Amino acid sequence: MAGVEQRQNKSGGGGKKKEVKKETGLGLSFTKDENFGEWYSEAVVNGEMIEYYDISGCYILRPWAISIWEIMQTFFDAEIKKMKIKNCYFPLFVSPGVLQKEKDHIEGFAPEVAWVTKSGESELEVPIAIRPTSETVMYPYYSKWIRGHRDLPLKLNQWCNVVRWEFSNPTPFIRSREFLWQEGHTAFATKEEADTEVLQILELYRCIYEEFLAIPVTKGRKSELEKFAGGLYTTSVEAFIPNTGRGIQGATSHCLGQNFAKMFEINFENEKGEKGMVWQNSWAYSTRTIGVMVMVHGDDKGLVLPPKVAALQLIVIPVPYKDADTQGIFDACVATVATLSDAGIRAEADLRDNYSPAWKYSNWEMKGVPLRIEIGPRDLANNQVRAVRRDNGAKTDISRVFLVEQVKGMLDKIQQNLFDVAKQKRDACVEVVKTWEEFVTALGQKKLILAPWCDEEDVEKDVKARTKGDMGAAKSLCTPFEQPELPEGTKCFASGKPAKKWTYWGRSY
Question: Residues in domain Aminoacyl-transfer RNA synthetases class-II family profile (predicted)?
Fold first, then answer.
């Protein structure tokens, strides 16, 4: 997605430009199919999700984006509290000694760590790192707080920002130098407890993607090469962007095993007085979720928001003709909003008199509002409204008598339809391959590839090396928990050795 970092609303960069609507001056100048990178940049800026900031890779998240984050946060926070996980906050800064204590972990993050080296004009004696993630920030204190089995489990979460100084193409939400997330860090007496929680959290992440954002994901396990640095194993939910043919890691839930416990001496005494080391997990999802939603559902008019996460689920627009009862129409719009708001639907009326109805239609379409209601003289006379769906453009006349139930039904249908269409498009991209030749062909066709694999690290490294090119190398995305049957004698697509599992492969963000 080269070029997304530049604000190219009017600039070239390959791909065909669309004519911006003449009558309104609104619309996107790039199409999703012909120049995805430029289209995405325009969609998030013109849809008022983000504004570019004067430091590359950093973005202002506007209320339209933050409201989506808050809806997901409200859901997730309530769910983890049911699991007796408590919120806390640890500092943003990390001392170098602590950061470098866990060798594999810091090696995984080293290129992205930002350092503070000065205070005013004075050089700091010891530079201070800004957290890329908080394992090394938190775990020295876990070793202080955990002494015996009664101190376990210790289950903490924080909602915060982290900084990863990316040098690849920054992309709003998807790959930025600072982002918002939650990070959970838990410690248990037994591996069984840790394993159970890993999957409970992963199911919540599936729920966020599929039930809130209407995005189909695959639950699975990462390869040894792709797992969290310093962890025992990593599970993830993986999404796919059909337009670019790239997978995207949606959220991760890691079992850290006892690796960090060993480094930070997080020990406890059990009921029998025996010394043991804790088993730990960490898990996170971030504002990347919002970018995946835009990429999957957005169209050439702009954003398309699933009703469950839209700050505004419905916009009411008056359509007064010449000599119409303008005040009566405005009053009907206000009354409609009041009725819907009382029923718990997030609705507003756009009563601005300096914009035409056509301009308002384009404006709210660009912002992705799921449902539009129009009220004109005929609607007023017939005690009805006209409802227009953002996802498919379908228009329906609704009696104001049945307004609330009809609108609720339509919002449910929009939510379901967005998921169904996204799943259909994703599934159409899945290609099952058995040989290297089939793999290379499918990769060239931007497919999500399911292939039998011998599960060896050297073979995965070899796949990366052999597919390296301008588009980026292919890698394993995840081994799905739901495994198709693997007939005896099936060979690995890349090595010809006996295959052990089916794994998804492809290029990724």
Answer: 91-306
At which residue do the structure tokens 């100084």 appear?
165
- Residue 2 pLDDT more than 70? no
Contact of 168 with 253, CB cutoff 8 Å: no
How far is Cα 369 from Cα 355, in angstroms, rounded to an integer? 18
Q: What are the CA-CA distances from residue 466 to residues 48, 154, 442, 459, 461 (Å)?
A: 41, 45, 15, 10, 9
C-alpha 278/C-alpha 192 separation (Å) is 12
Whether the bond into 153 is cis, omega within 30 of 0: yes
Determine how β-strand 218-221 pairs with β-strand 178-188: unpaired
What domains, with CATH codes, occur in the chain? 63-296 (3.30.930.10), 314-426 (3.40.50.800), 433-508 (3.30.110.30)
Classify 239 in phi/psi space as left (phi over 0), alpha (psi -120 to 50) or beta. beta
Kindly report, residue by residue over 54-99, the tens digit of the pLDDT: 999 999 999 999 999 999 999 999 999 999 999 999 999 999 988 8
